[in-house]
């Protein structure tokens, strides 16, 4: 089972490609304010480095948080959209062992259908000033 992992809760974004629990490729980059502009290119490059295509992905995992409001929103939107468009299972987790936990859950046939971010504290959204 080819699994894509995505973590976007901090300025350094991370993506990984696994064959079951065996790591095939992993990349960390300084995405910071360019996450939305770079994440798809990074995933495509990671896939090409292992001679894989988008259609080879059989499951996807995402780090749910806590973390950056915007980073989590972007990363989990990409994660959810890829799972929906490819019609593949998706799981999410928090904590230090999130990838291992997610891969085990995917291999057991679990599917969260959608991942919701966990920010770690209430979100503070201000009203427009004018």
What letter string, H or E per element, gives the SSE order? EEEHEHEH
Shape: globular
Fill in the CATH topology.
Nucleotidyltransferase, domain 5
| Total separate domains | 1
Strand content: 15-25%
Amount of helix: 25-40%
**The first-level CATH class name:** Alpha Beta
Mind telling me the CATH superfamily name?
ATPase, nucleotide binding domain
Average pLDDT value? 93
The SS-based structural class is alpha/beta
Oligomer designation: single chain
Nearest-angstrom radius of gyration? 14 Å
Largest sheet: 5 strands, mixed
Detail the poorly predicted runs: none
In short:
The chain has one domain (2-107): ATPase, nucleotide binding domain (Nucleotidyltransferase, domain 5, 2-Layer Sandwich), CATH 3.30.420.40. Helices cover 33% and strands 25% of the residues. It contains 3 helices and 5 strands.
Describe the structure.
There is one protein chain. Helices cover 33% and strands 25% of the residues. The chain is an alpha/beta fold. The chain has one domain (2-107): Nucleotidyltransferase, domain 5 (2-Layer Sandwich). The protein has a five-stranded mixed β-sheet, with helices on both faces. Helix 1 (35-49) packs across helix 2 (69-86). The longest helix is centred in the middle third of the chain and has 18 residues, at 69-86. The radius of gyration is 14 Å and the shape is globular.
């Amino acid at each position: 089972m080819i699994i894509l992992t995505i973590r976007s809760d901090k300025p350094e974004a991370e993506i990984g490609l696994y064959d079951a629990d065996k790591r095939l490729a992993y990349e960390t980059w300084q995405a910071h304010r360019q996450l939305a502009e770079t994440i798809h290119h990074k995933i495509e490059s990671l896939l090409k480095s292992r001679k894989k295509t988008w259609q080879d992905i059989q499951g996807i995992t995402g780090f749910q948080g806590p973390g950056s409001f915007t980073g989590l929103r972007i990363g989990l939107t990409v994660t959810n959209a890829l799972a929906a468009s490819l019609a593949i299972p998706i799981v999410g987790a928090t904590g230090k062992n999130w990838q291992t936990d997610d891969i085990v859950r995917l291999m057991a046939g679990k599917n969260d259908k959608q991942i919701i971010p966990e920010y770690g504290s209430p979100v503070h959204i201000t009203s427009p000033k004018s």
